[in-house]
Amino acid sequence: MIVLGIESSCDECSAALVQDGRQILSNVIATQIPFHAPWGGVVPEIASRKHAEWISSVVNEAFQRASLPLEAADGVAVTSQPGLMGSLLVGLSFAKAFAWARRVPFTACDHMLAHLYASRLDMPGIQTPPPYPFLALLVSGGHTLICRVEDFRTMTVLGTTVDDAAGEAFDKVSKHYGWGYPGGKHIDEYARTGNAAAFAFPVPKLHHGSPYDVSYSGLKTAAIHQCEFFRKQAETTAADLAASFQKAAIDVLIRALLNAVQDTGITTIVTGGGVAANSYLRSCLAAQQNVSCIFPAPELCGDNAAMVAGLGFEYLSRGIYTPFSVTANPRRAFRLS
């Protein structure tokens, strides 16, 4: 079964064709970064307008790259939640129209479950998909979640951020210092040549809620407004500041995630989301003993339609379709354990 996937939840306009839930035939990602960079973050109005302008050509390019006609799609999968309402509606409306016109089944997918599915797509070095259950670390500009995943459509959120998402903190610190957008990518690049011990930024300790929860507002404030207070060396560079901030931000995640590993006894960890491409996060998790960590390819960490098409296959192959009456939902109701 060949599934057309469409992703437009934020600022990436993407379409992909995936066969039998694993083989990526094409994965087109049209980025809007140049249009949002002057503002240091995603502007919802700009995002939805660009999706409307690009969606048709992006879908056509996905078929062209796969050397397939439009009739080759056996079904359509699209992100319907969570995300920016205007952006979601563009992709959802196009997917409905395509499915109706071609008389093929249609399914609406959850964006976070799609990120979890990215690790099940064919990737170099991964022969078989990770077995269920596993722990998932989903980190992006809008979400920071530690989850227990039972199957392709069942996850329980164990911990989340109590304030800012990890990617949001990276973006705001990068914007303040003029390092560029998106912040995670630029901070990662700066940090490669920096001294992570130059600033001793605090690692937040939460005294209430889940032991798997994290917090970023205090760290963000320390890096932006209280930087001098945490300086440990007389002479420092921007790279030192970036490396120190990155270490503190990632260490928060690692600590909470390892708490979940210890308490659940689950030693397989799957990562997803844009921050999952961070080199320091990857090296820290890869160095953990007695834990198996699976990282999607960098191009599958951020928003992309291949993960949506893969997840859609699981629904469509089981005859689980979505009625055309479905609409977009900017939020997702998570069940906390």
Using DSSP, what is the number of strands? 10
* Form type: globular
Please state the structural category. alpha/beta
Which blocks of ≥5 consecutive residues have pLDDT under 50? none
Order of helices and strands: EEEHHEHEHEEEHHHHEHEHH
Mean pLDDT: 93
Rounded radius of gyration (Å): 20 Å
Strand order of the largest sheet: 3-2-1-4-5
CATH level-3 fold name of the largest domain: Nucleotidyltransferase, domain 5
Supply the CATH class of the largest domain: Alpha Beta
Tell me roughly what share of residues is in helical segments: 25-40%
What would CATH call the architecture of the largest domain? 2-Layer Sandwich
Which homologous superfamily in CATH is the superfamily of the largest domain? ATPase, nucleotide binding domain
Q: Report on the biggest sheet.
A: 5 strands, mixed
Tally the structural domains: 2
Can you count the helices? 11
Range of strand content: 15-25%
N-to-C terminal Cα separation, in Å? 36 Å
What is the subunit organization of this protein?
A: single chain
Describe the structure.
The protein is globular, with a radius of gyration of 20 Å. The protein folds into 2 domains: 2-120 and 301-316, ATPase, nucleotide binding domain (Nucleotidyltransferase, domain 5); 134-295, 2-Layer Sandwich (Nucleotidyltransferase, domain 5), CATH 3.30.420. It has 337 residues and is α/β, with parallel strands linked by helices. A hairpin with a 2-residue loop joins β7 (144-151) and β8. Helices cover 39% and strands 19% of the residues. The chain contains 11 helices and 10 strands.
